Each structure stands twice: as structure tokens, then as C-alpha cells.
Amino acid sequence: MDAAALWQRYQDWLYYHEGLEFYLDVSRMRFDNTFVEGMKPKFEQAFKEMEALEGGAIANPDENRMVGHYWLRTPDLAPNPQLKQEILNTLEKIEDFTQKVHSGAILTDSGSKFTDVLSIGIGGSALGPQFVADALAPVFPPLAIHFIDNTDPAGIDSVLTRTKDRLSSTLVLVISKSGGTPETRNGMIEVKKAYEAQNLEFGRHAVAITGKDSKLDQLAKSESWLATFPMYDWIGGRTSELSAVGLLPAALQGINIQEMLAGAKEMDIATRIPKIRENPAALLALSWYFSGNGKGEKDMVVLPYKDSLLLFSRYLQQLVMESLGKEKDLDGKTVYQGIAVYGNKGTTDQHAYVQQLREGVSNFFATFIEVLEDRQGTSPEVEPGVTSGDYLAGLLQGTRQALYENQRDSITVTIPQVNPRIVGALIALYERAVGLYGFLVNINAYHQPGVEAGKKAAAAILDLQQRVIQVLQDENAPISLLVLAQKAEASDKIEAIYQILRHLHTNQRTVVLEGNLGQPSSLLVSTI
Q: Is this model's pTM higher than 0.90 or not?
């Protein structure tokens, strides 16, 4: 395509939202008008499905649940007055609690003001809050935030060591819908023990964000925690950032949560328009479908050209992959759907994997995130007439052009600056794009059976561990792996038993392995 034709295509496919000063450029995706026309019937159905979803239709048939994250920023859309009032009450409670913490009306058990927040959660209960904290928290927030988002003991130690001297003035948020999520529960127990070691009353520092009457809700009430906030069953973890899950930690850091909600609401309005060219989420879904042939055949590489958006690719990774990565479609047909997402930031990636993007396997499409404002205030020149921001903008354009010249497609999202309103809009944009794409390929974007399967398998391993230890205690003498597996009635799980024993032996946990560690079948196993 010559320069004049490409310039015309750019103008034809450039989306602009005046209120948000938001641009979306899909001109470097090589679909043609025939493809777009052929997709219109699918989009007409997807728009209807999305409208029904927002109206309260059961969109998660596995759990008989509605999907209502859109109601969080427009409570008037909630399907009944009770839900609307619950949303409004929760928002009011978040703001009231935050104001009391900031002002000192709520103090620690020693009577001092809180200085830090420690958020314990995993998946959607961590990725959204981490992304928003990285993007929007002021340099000197009213409360500095820290995260425990895994059950890695060394990782927990690292966080607790860094906060040890301020544990007495740290507010702990425990985030789990069921209250039984193992990783979150483990983090809470370890943090609780750290408080007890300093003779601090954990409940005077703790807040629960959880489902009504969950195990965590009951624990928080029985121990008189400072507060509890709801997690609704119609909000999935990966779409929970604009619920109490994300809004409470953001507000405590001094981030304007009303602006986040306002930006999301404005983007929701834009993405309800049932016309492909006038709907930015539809343009994204169209581009994803085209690039991957409706089957996820190409990966999504996310390249934000702003340090504060570094974690956006991680946030999108869960939102997209957990939503779209499905074995079965809505008709029960095996389809193996999904779009792989990865990314870091520009221009860092130009010194990392952009070499492969341009010249290696063409198994991806890129998404550039451009931020027009370089910084608050003026920039010094690094060369005559050139600033660091000019370099950043030039490198983005240069990479986009270099990819296109080598038959690599890309999307460019352009925002005016990184602020709460725009971050809220980006969250809403991609939530809607994922929903629309899910309808286009006929899968349920709102459940995660693969995640649940992994949890069940992990529970089975822990159950096997208990049986193995019991056998060793009963034997009270060294035995072989084979005999151990037979006595545990798990001869078909001998490899899993070996890996359990190796882990326990390495961590000096009651198990002793004797023999050649490189030849598992030769080992003798005993317990201390």
C-alpha cells in the first residue's frame, strides 16, 4: 500500500473519543472491507448478548450467576433497586473509611496513624490493585502499599522484612471472595503470626474484602476486625478492580476513585454503541478476531510506552487469557479458544524481543499504548530541539513502522496522560472488548474451569502428602519409595510422592531421604 493510500486508511479507521481525548488506531491491522462486512452478523448478535448481560441475564450458567461489573460505575443499570443501593452504600463506606484512616479518626491499637497498607490477595484480587498502584499512586502517598500475592514463603518474608519496623502502623487488607483461597489464607495466617510476634492485636489492623457470610467474613466479625467490605457473586476477580477490591486500596493511597469510575462510565457509554466503526471495544475485538482467524492463532504483545503502565500487560494477561482460554464453547463443542498475552514496556523491549517481533516468527500482533503527555512540566533538551519524550514518541512510531513494513500487524491506543479517569476508561475498554470477543467465538468469558481444576489437583496433592507422612510415622523405619507408595494406596502416584518427599526433605520437615538423590528408586525414606 503506498503512502497516500495508507494515510487514507489511517483516517478511515482512526477512532477518537473527544471527552476522553482517546484515540484508537487499527489501520495497521490488514483486514479489508469484505472481512468487516462478513463480521457484521456476528457483531449484531454480540451486541445483543452484551445488552442482555448488562440487563442481568444469567451469563455464567455454570454457577447460575449474573455478570454485573458494569453496574459498579453506573448503579442505575443494576437490575433491581436493592443491588443499586448496595453498590452506592459500598462506595460511600469506602470513602468514609478512607477519610477516617487518613484523618486519624481510625487509629492503630497503639493510638498512632496508619502509614502503610499491606494487601493480601491473588489473581484478580492482586493484579488490578497492583496495576493501579503502579500507574496512579502519588510519589508520596498518604499510605504506602505493599502486596503479598503468592504463597511463596521467601516472597512473604521479603515483604514482612521490609515492613517489619512499620508493622504496628500497617493496615492489612485481606481479599478473598470465598475466604478459602489457599494462597490468600496462607498469607493472612503468616501476617497474623508476624503481628502476634510483636504483641500487636491483628484485628485492630485488619480489613476483610470478601463475600457475605464467607469464612473470611465470619472470621473478621468474630475477631472484631476494623471493617468488612463486600465482594459480590456477580463480580469476577478479573473484573473486580472497580469494586471494593480495587477501589479501597486505591483510595487509601490517595487515588481519586470517583474519577476512575467516571472514566469507566464514559467508556462504557462509548462501547455500547452497536456499530463496529463507532465502538472502540468492537474495533479491538474485530482486530483480535482477524489476526487470529477467530481461533487465537496469534499472540497479543502489549507495549505501553510509559513506565507507569508497566503492569498493564500483566493485568491484561489475566483479563484476556482467563476469560477467553476455554476448551469448550457454549454448545459443548471442543474449540480450544484463547489469545496469549505478554509484554513489558517500550522502549525497553526494543532492546529485548522487538528483534524477534520484526524478523522472527510472525505469530503475534502488537498493541502499542501511547501517552501524549511526556511529564508534568517542561522537559530539558537532550539534543538541540529534542527531549527525552521526543525520543520515546519517535521510537514508538519507528517500531510501529518497522513492524508494518515487515508484514507485522499492530494496534495503537493513544491516551492524553496517565490519570485516574483514563485508567478507569482503559479498564472498561478491555473488559468490553473481551466480552464482545467471547460472544464472537461463542465461549463463556465469565467462568474459569481450568483454574478450578488446578485448585482441585493441588488439594489432592496435599491430601496425598498427609497420607504419606502417616505411613512413615506408622512404619517408624526406612522404607523404599515403592513400598511407601503401596502402603499409601497410591502406587500410580509414585512420582508425585517422590516430589512431595524431596520438598519436605529439603525444608527439613520430618522426612529423611537416604541414598542417591539422582536415582529416586534407590532411596530409602524415613521420618524424624
A: yes
